[in-house]
Design a protein that fits this description.
single chain
């Protein structure tokens, strides 16, 4: 009877050990994957910020051009 308990404890301990090792390995792999995804998203956000800044600058240039056209039209009409 005591032998059966010892065998059960050893078996349970080995199973628990294997489960912990599996969780650690899986967690490490998931962390690496998440880090790579975060890096990719950060790069994409940086590129999009550059495009937004270019777009905003274009809008400012158009506004300046409209003001210049209005000034020229006023000069022509006077």
């Amino acid at each position: 009877m005591p032998d059966a308990i010892i065998v059960a404890l050893i078996t349970g301990g080995l199973s628990a050990f294997a489960s912990v090792i599996t969780v650690i390995i899986t967690s490490d792999a998931n962390n690496k994957l998440q880090d790579e995804r975060i890096k990719t998203l950060t790069d994409l956000i940086s590129k999009l910020q550059g495009k937004v800044e270019q777009h905003n600058n274009f809008g400012l240039q158009i506004a300046k051009l409209e003001t210049r056209v209005e000034d020229i039209e006023k000069r022509i009409n006077n």
